Backbone:
């Protein structure tokens, strides 16, 4: 399952992140890494960005990027 | 005695500068260094015979050599001789802040961790077991709040203690991981020791860099024809270890989620697809209304005071001097500077509103709403943030494009930023719209702002069509938790803005005003036959297809705006207002002038607090501006003039910022583009709409 399929208010843990090296590293430093967990705060519709909560911070991510994060429910 | 250097490092908005200001005890010497984008400020203090340099470094989330601000901070810490690091952390968000703390220990520089915002910790009922956290971090922790004086003294003592008896942090690897690192280092040493003189310790260091996915370390590995798999390197080993350590610390923190309760509640409304957008439009429109409602009467008030007291005093004082001297001081310097100073309330209110939006965290929500639309134009939400900053001043907006990862999008944003009407253009719009579009001035100014955005987006769309190297990059944007804006922060920002505005008024604008006076006074001591008039009347033919070419004064004002946009009004007030306007005031007795002053004050209070507007108390400048365009098409001509000012080449400071950030080639292209664009746009608007208003 990818992050775009997760409903608002769900806690998930990250299984895999399919990003290029630079983006991958950025996400890693911000707390998104395989094995880490996050909360889907607010899932936007297809063209709208979504809001996730990772390690005490709210981040906004686009739909295309959500599709690159494979997750599983905790 | 050798000067000791103390670097203040931490995430953005954790209060580093506030601590430095308190520690420097008001003796802050601020020095702007290279980069300009990200200013490193320093204060030199003398503590018990110790000369100490306190360096405020830009806020970062991680030590990285790739991104702008992070690279500058990392480079400073790695290359300069730093005697002690003060790592300021937001205690209400340790989960995020401690990542950098643990990364910093790798530098092996003596360090103190300042747990800031302890007042908020109490407010949110966050419980901390400091002793246990300190055991995990193995670093001295200082609990503090900037508002308590005793905290400042205690921190000073602790810093001096660290300077005299430095304790070096040791980056502790977790036991189970040491074996993995050693195993990989051993494998690496076996592969390379025959080809090079590398030691085993260096191999360990190499492996640690590889664990961080350091590009240079990886490249060096490939040079020896070794792949990371051969070394059985654990993936993102170090980063995960740091998180494990942060998690261990977080075991001793409870109730840390309470802080976000309010933010979640507010975001349910402000990020709502429908209500969020409606409220955003309402907030932005209300902000503009507030700026106009307060600044208009206050500006007229300042101008009135100058008219009643300053000019009569100057006339009397200069009575015995030659005509040219009188004209220079009253018409030249006096008029120019008065016009500029009358916009102080506008600049102040504008910055108060902007800081409230920024400090409260609402600006980030605006980015959230706009990202979707910006995406259509191959831009992203961060571009919109630069646009918003541009409404204040285009210079920081150009620098703020550094946060955009995609280089193409960054350049595109930089081209579009000058179309965002900055604070300096606002007075021009306001004065013209209040003269020619009475009762509709707010709408006109809002339409000009919107037109700037519209043109910017059109250009972005056209560029995106022809952009063949389109590359999608990750878009990640942080939304801060809501905070009640601190009055002290707002006042500080407003103070800085006003100081820079006044400085500009007495340097750049004053210089321009003197030049303009010379050109408008000579050779015949008459504006109408002056050099500037003769030259501008010839040039204005070129602007006739744009509508406003009928007024040579307006055309002549345009080139002066390259120095600073405010100069346009200073120019017009010099050219348009002559002695005859103020002669009736000069002849008033002091008693009558005081009476006039009382009436003026009463009118301002009525307008500000009771929304009661007196019958247009026009200033001389407004009366004179009214005479610039008098035919049926006057409103269209003025609107085209304002559009031209909106889109024309930005001021010299913005151009300098563009040159520094993007190089001279980009600078030239942008300048040429911005020279022709306003002409073309104003031309079409005038030609199309003049058909209706024949």
Residues:
């Amino acid at each position: 399952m990818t992050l775009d399929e997760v409903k608002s208010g769900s806690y998930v843990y990250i299984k895999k992140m399919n990003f290029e090296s630079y983006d991958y590293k950025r996400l890693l430093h911000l707390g998104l890494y395989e094995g880490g967990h996050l909360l889907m705060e607010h899932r936007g519709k297809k063209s709208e960005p979504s809001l996730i909560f990772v390690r005490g911070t709210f981040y906004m991510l686009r739909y295309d990027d959500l599709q690159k994060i494979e997750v599983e429910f905790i | 005695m050798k000067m000791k250097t103390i670097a203040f490092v931490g995430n953005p908005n954790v209060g580093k500068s506030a601590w430095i200001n308190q520690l420097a005890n008001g003796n802050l010497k601020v020095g702007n260094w290279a980069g300009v984008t990200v200013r490193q400020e320093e204060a030199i203090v003398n503590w018990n015979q110790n000369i100490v340099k306190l360096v405020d470094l830009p806020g970062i989330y991680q030590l990285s050599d790739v991104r702008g601000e992070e690279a500058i901070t990392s480079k400073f810490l790695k290359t300069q001789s730093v005697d002690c690091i003060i790592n300021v952390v937001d205690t209400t968000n340790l989960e995020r802040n401690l990542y950098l703390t643990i990364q910093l220990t790798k530098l092996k520089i003596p360090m103190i961790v300042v747990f800031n915002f302890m007042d908020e910790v109490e407010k949110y009922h966050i419980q901390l077991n400091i002793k246990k956290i300190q055991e995990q971090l193995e670093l001295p922790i200082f609990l503090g709040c900037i508002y308590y004086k005793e905290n400042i003294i205690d921190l000073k003592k602790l810093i001096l203690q660290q300077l005299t008896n430095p304790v070096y942090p040791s980056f502790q690897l977790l036991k189970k991981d040491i074996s993995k690192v050693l195993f990989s280092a051993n494998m690496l040493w076996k592969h390379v020791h025959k080809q090079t003189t590398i030691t085993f310790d260096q191999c360990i260091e190499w492996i640690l860099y590889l664990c961080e996915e350091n590009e240079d370390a990886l490249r060096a590995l490939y040079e020896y024809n070794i792949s990371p798999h051969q070394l059985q390197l654990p993936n993102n080993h170090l980063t995960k270890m740091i998180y494990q350590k942060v998690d261990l610390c977080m075991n001793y923190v409870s109730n840390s989620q309470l802080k976000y309760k309010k933010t979640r509640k507010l975001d349910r409304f402000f990020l709502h697809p429908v209500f969020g957008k409606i409220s955003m439009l309402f907030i932005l429109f209300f902000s503009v209304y507030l700026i106009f409602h307060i600044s208009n009467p206050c500006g007229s008030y300042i101008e009135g005071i100058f008219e009643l007291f300053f000019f009569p005093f100057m006339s009397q004082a200069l009575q015995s001097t030659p005509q040219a001297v009188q004209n220079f001081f009253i018409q030249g310097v006096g008029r120019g500077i008065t016009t500029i100073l009358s916009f102080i309330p506008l600049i102040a209110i504008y910055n108060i509103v902007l800081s409230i939006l920024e400090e409260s965290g609402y600006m980030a929500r605006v980015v959230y709403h706009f990202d979707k639309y910006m995406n259509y134009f191959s831009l992203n939400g961060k571009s919109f943030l630069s646009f918003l900053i541009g409404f204040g001043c285009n210079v920081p907006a150009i620098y703020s494009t550094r946060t955009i990862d995609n280089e193409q999008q960054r350049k595109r944003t930089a081209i579009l930023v000058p179309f965002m009407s900055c604070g300096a253009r606002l007075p021009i719009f306001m004065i013209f719209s209040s003269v020619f579009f009475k009762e509709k001035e707010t709408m006109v100014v809002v339409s000009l702002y919107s037109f700037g955005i519209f043109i910017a987006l059109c250009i972005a769309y056209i560029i995106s069509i022809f952009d063949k190297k389109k590359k999608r990059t990750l878009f990640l944007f942080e939304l801060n938790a809501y905070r009640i804006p601190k009055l002290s922060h707002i006042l500080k920002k407003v103070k800085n803005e006003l100081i820079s505005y006044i400085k500009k008024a007495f340097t750049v604008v004053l210089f321009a005003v003197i030049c303009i006076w010379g050109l408008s006074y000579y050779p015949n001591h008459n504006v109408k036959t002056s050099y500037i008039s003769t030259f501008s009347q010839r040039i204005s033919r070129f602007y006739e297809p744009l509508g406003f070419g009928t007024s040579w004064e307006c055309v002549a004002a345009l080139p002066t705006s390259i120095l600073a946009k405010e100069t346009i009004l200073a120019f017009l007030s010099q050219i348009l207002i002559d002695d005859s306007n103020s002669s009736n005031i000069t002849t008033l007795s002091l008693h009558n002038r005081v009476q006039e002053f009382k009436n003026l004050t009463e009118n301002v209070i009525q307008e500000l607090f009771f929304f009661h507007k007196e019958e247009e108390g026009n200033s001389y400048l407004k009366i004179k501006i009214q005479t610039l365009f008098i035919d049926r098409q006057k409103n269209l001509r003025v609107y085209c003039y304002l559009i031209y000012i909106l889109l024309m080449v930005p001021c010299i400071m913005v151009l300098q910022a563009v040159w520094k950030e993007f190089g001279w080639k980009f600078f030239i292209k942008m300048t040429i583009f911005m020279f022709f664009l306003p002409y073309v746009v104003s031309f079409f608007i005038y030609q199309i709409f003049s058909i209706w208003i024949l």
In short: The radius of gyration of chain B is 30 Å. The beta strands of chain B are 4-10, 41-47, 50-56, 84-90, 111-116, 127-128, 141-143, 253-254, 476-479. Residues 275-317 of chain B form the longest helix (43 residues).
